[in-house]
């Protein structure tokens, strides 16, 4: 099993919520003890996105972003 993790995930640290750095630290330590493969995330390619979403959905999100509704950090071609 491969775990995708970045220390930047800890920037979403909600002190009194289940989503917090302390919880992440405990989980990551357990995963390291299990000797699981841990990799840094990478930008998803259009083919990656199409493995889990339809072309219509990807086109919709791209159009929404192009109309100023959101910001995408990659170029969809």
UniProtKB/TrEMBL annotation:
It comes from the Archaea. Gene3D superfamilies: Histone deacetylase domain (3.40.800.20). InterPro entries: His_deacetylse_dom_sf, Ureohydrolase_dom_sf. This is Histone deacetylase domain-containing protein. It comes from Methanothermobacter tenebrarum. The lineage of its organism: Archaea, Methanobacteriati, Methanobacteriota, Methanomada group, Methanobacteria.
């Amino acid at each position: 099993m491969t775990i995708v993790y970045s220390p930047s995930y800890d920037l979403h640290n909600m002190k009194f919520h289940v989503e917090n750095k302390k919880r992440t630290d405990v989980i990551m330590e357990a995963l390291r003890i299990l000797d699981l493969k841990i990799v840094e995330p990478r930008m998803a390619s259009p083919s990656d996105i199409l493995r889990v979403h339809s072309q219509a959905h990807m086109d919709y999100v791209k159009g929404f972003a192009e109309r100023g509704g959101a910001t995408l950090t990659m170029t969809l071609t």
